[in-house]
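Researcher: Re-running this chain for the archive, since the previous output was lost when a drive failed. Same request as before.
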Amino acid sequence: MKTIALILFAATYILLLAYPKYRTYISLVSAALFVIIGILPFNKVLYSIDWNVVLMITGTMGIVNLFIESKMPALLADVIIDKVSSIKWAIISLAVFAGIVSAFIDNVATVLIVAPVAINIAKKLDISPVYIIISIAISSNLQGAATLVGDTTSLLLGGFAKMDFMDFFFFKGRPGLFWIVEFGAIATIIILIIFFRSYNQPIHLEEKQEVEDYFPTYLLISMVLLLIFASFIPNKPSITNGLICTTLLIVGLIKELIINKNKHAINNTLLQIDYETILLLMGLFVIIAGITEAGVINDISKIFLKVGGNNLFLIYTLIVWFSVIVSAFIDNIPYTATMLPVASMIAKSMNIEPYILYFGLLIGATLGGNLTPIGASANITGLGLLKREGYEVKARDFMKLSVPFTITAVVVGFILTWVTFT
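Model: Regenerated structure tokens:
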């Protein structure tokens, strides 16, 4: 049964890599096969899915859609631009702004919020928007690891390691991933300053975006505050965070339908949620449970232990940089979902706490996606917007900025994570 599970798992990964447009269907079909063949007992299927993560993603995406529709993010971007004197600092400010926003909002949504502002600036100044959009995309992807709701990979870690919102800020009496990511982000600002050093054209904002409704902003702030509050509640139900996010989404929809009399609220919000990613995750949860049941996860962990020679620093280094390389070419969601139980098994075999390996995995997997144009959804989205504007970006042009940016962020994260958690 283990051989069949391994073949099915390998085939799933190959198909995910070869046919990214159909990754949701591949994941669901593979999950169904794991159950039908008998690798994962049917009575364990529902328990293998992390419903807290599923509900958090659904609620957060819906609230973010309402937030975008309110025009508040566009106003914030305009306010920032209005405070700077040159295009260089406008680009850096937009990149930093995108990073901050993406710590709390999905990376793709962040790019969709900020990129149009950058494109508009580029048109006014008659300059290419290519590297402006690239800087926004990679900055937003970088900050995804900063908080529990910043990226799907963070949600996966939170669900697997039973981490709450505040654990990303302070964990077991030590600075959390948030601060490690922020130091990495600060280091990348130096890369941006050097790269855009010749962009000294003056800039002036003629008019600012008007906000149509402040209620979604209050919803988003409430979500963050309630997640923080829930972090301090002991022995709470496992789906508490998910219920917070989905309940606030329902409140927002009721307000839109009844008070704003917006008949299109359901279409504009619920139908904009990325259900494909949610279904992909549900399928992956079942697949990972299946290969764990079959003993494949244990075998993969033994390979890392054999190569690492039971040396924690060497194994940590392997996990971080292997994650960077892998995530540069394949989606980091299935990779992270696979490697979390592997990291857990390695730590158990070494009789150590697993957190140093979890955090190293997240640093490598999340930041590694910035290396190439196809390594992260935010990058693909940014390049899609550029293509719509008539700009075809080659991989080598993308990597002129992405490689030094990514290496800088990962090196800082690699060092700080090791120093902080060992």
